[in-house]
């Protein structure tokens, strides 16, 4: 501990610091510097109060999950389908008791979580919630825990990959539970992307930290007000989407399920045919609109509600995503209409829904687009990496990272032409400093390496190259279906080996938590004092 009134000679400071660990007092008359050195015991990596508060928060999540299971139970009662009611009661009771056991010890006073603790909280909470969210699948579908956990992880991470089939005749309780996992995971990811990832400086997310800071344009005066308006927008879009799907021709039950799945960019459907079960064009266009709404920054919806009507229009992320969708729609429609006998309007509808679903990492499908031809096959594979905007429910690399990469490329090319010029790099009005650039490059590198390693491990298990590569890419990016006959839009992941399902479940978690959040726990230095 020290107080400084003026500069002091470096030699004196060195001698003072070298005086030993015992508590001493040093005074420098020339500079009026007072030093107090004391022995310092290193803090443990995870103290007991810290573990208690992490457990307390996870306990709250589990209790919330247990209460959420009331909705499937109520659905079973409404539809007179009581065969799964007891199983849901057991799942809810087990989850509630586990959450209560973590909450009862209480929350320690005067304990603040450090960034290191936030890594542990984020990863452990997602894993624990997925473990207990799998119980309804395990108890009602009589499937292995591997399949149950895979379905749960796919739901919570809003990936949309599934091991279940015969959805059209499945219990309404399980169907609504799958959609609810998407919905709860979607709002959870928005909160993490807005509040936690910028704090942890993951993958360039610090660009969006100012959206809730005092130095930014005042979107909201307090963070809890931001959360309130985000939840309001999320619930509002879900309600409007449900009404729109219902008006377009779906039953009310199907409409609610698909609205929750679309706004969370998840992709679970109530039919094995996905949206192809409903031939009404209005259903497809409603899905397109809701998917786009879910892939835009929810903080900008908050700004719009606060009176900034041009918040969405001026945002470079939004401009980039909408521009990408329109250009891809146009190119694919021209190609698809000329290679099939479909009218232009119908070709546009098929292209718009499937392209939007892949770009926003939702996972809905209107037919098996992997059979459209080699050009579409490659294009859909590339589009699955892009993702939506930061602060949305979409997965993938995120559009802003591609935009920043373009800015860096353009700046470097201009620097080669004009070596003495001073180039200012800005994105959305924020300066791109070295830390942000380094963070984005690190994320992009590990994102690519993760997909390559998972694909390699899947190939070691005997999967063909198409299934291995697109399975790895679709789960890490959060798209859901892969490409090909096995895991394509017309298939599912049920036939894969159990080891492959665990590997892909890990890929979903890595992709949803922006990879670095999980990998930092694997660094030995994290666990040292």
From TrEMBL:
Keywords: Cell inner membrane, Cell membrane, Ion transport, Membrane, Metal-binding, Potassium, Potassium transport, Transmembrane, Transmembrane helix, Transport
Bilayer-crossing regions: 53-76, 88-106, 118-139, 180-204, 225-248, 282-305, 317-337, 379-400, 440-461, 502-527
Source taxon at top rank: Bacteria
Statement: the UniProt record of this protein carries the keyword Ion transport: yes
Main location: membrane
GO CC list: plasma membrane
Stored InterPro entries: Cat_transpt, TrkH
Alphabetized Pfam families for the sequence: TrkH
Family: Belongs to the TrkH potassium transport family.
PANTHER family recorded: TRK SYSTEM POTASSIUM UPTAKE PROTEIN (PTHR32024:SF3), TRK SYSTEM POTASSIUM UPTAKE PROTEIN TRKG-RELATED (PTHR32024)
Function: Low-affinity potassium transport system. Interacts with Trk system potassium uptake protein TrkA.
Protein name: Trk system potassium uptake protein
Source organism: Pseudomonas amygdali pv. mori
């Amino acid at each position: 501990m020290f107080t400084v009134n003026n500069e002091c000679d470096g030699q004196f400071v060195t001698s003072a610091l070298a005086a030993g660990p015992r508590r001493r007092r040093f005074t420098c008359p020339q500079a009026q510097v007072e030093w107090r050195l004391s022995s310092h015991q290193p803090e443990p990596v995870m103290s007991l109060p810290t573990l208690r508060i992490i457990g307390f928060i996870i306990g709250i999540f589990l209790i919330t999950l247990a209460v959420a299971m009331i909705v499937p139970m109520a659905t079973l009662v409404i539809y007179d389908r009581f065969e799964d009611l007891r199983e849901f009661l057991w799942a809810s009771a087990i989850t509630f008791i586990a959450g209560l056991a973590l909450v009862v010890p209480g929350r320690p006073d005067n304990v603040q979580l450090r960034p290191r603790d936030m890594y542990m909280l984020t990863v452990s909470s997602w894993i624990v919630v997925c473990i207990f969210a799998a119980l309804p699948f395990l108890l009602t579908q009589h499937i292995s825990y591997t399949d149950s956990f895979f379905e749960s992880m796919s739901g919570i991470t809003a990936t949309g990959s599934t091991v279940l089939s015969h959805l059209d005749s499945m219990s309404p309780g399980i169907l609504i539970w799958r959609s609810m996992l998407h919905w709860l995971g979607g709002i959870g990811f928005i909160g993490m992307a807005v509040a936690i990832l910028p704090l942890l400086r993951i993958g360039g997310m610090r660009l969006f930290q100012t959206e809730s800071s005092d130095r930014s344009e005042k979107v909201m005066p307090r963070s809890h007000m931001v959360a309130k308006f985000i939840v309001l927008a999320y619930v509002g879009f879900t309600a409007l989407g449900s009404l729109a799907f219902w008006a377009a021709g779906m039953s009310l039950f199907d409409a609610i399920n698909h609205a929750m799945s679309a706004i969370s960019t998840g992709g679970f459907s109530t039919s094995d045919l996905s949206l192809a079960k409903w031939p009404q064009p209005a259903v497809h266009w409603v899905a397109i609109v809701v998917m786009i709404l879910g892939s835009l920054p929810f903080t900008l919806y908050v700004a719009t509600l606060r009176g900034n009507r041009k918040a969405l229009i001026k945002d470079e992320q939004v401009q980039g995503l909408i521009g990408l969708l329109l250009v891809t729609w146009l190119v694919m429609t021209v190609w698809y209409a000329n290679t099939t006998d479909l009218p232009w309007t119908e070709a546009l509808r098929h292209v718009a829904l499937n392209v939007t679903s892949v770009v926003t990492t939702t996972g809905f499908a209107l037919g098996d687009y992997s059979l459209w031809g080699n050009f579409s096959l490659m294009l859909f594979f590339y589009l699955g990496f892009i993702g939506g905007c930061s602060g949305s429910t979409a997965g993938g690399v995120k559009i802003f990272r591609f935009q920043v990469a373009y800015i860096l490329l353009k700046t470097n090319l201009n620097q080669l032409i004009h070596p003495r010029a001073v180039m200012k790099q800005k994105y959305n009005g924020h300066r791109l400093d070295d830390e942000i650039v380094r963070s984005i490059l690190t994320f992009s590198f590990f994102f690519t390496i993760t997909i390559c390693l998972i694909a390699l491990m899947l190939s070691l298990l005997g999967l063909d190259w198409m299934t291995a590569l697109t399975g790895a890419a679709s789960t890490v990016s959060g798209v859901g279906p892969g490409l090909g006959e096995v895991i394509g839009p017309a298939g599912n992941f049920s036939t894969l080996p159990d080891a492959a399902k665990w590997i892909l479940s890990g890929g979903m978690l890595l992709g949803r938590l922006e990879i670095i959040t999980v990998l930092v726990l694997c660094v030995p230095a994290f666990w040292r004092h």
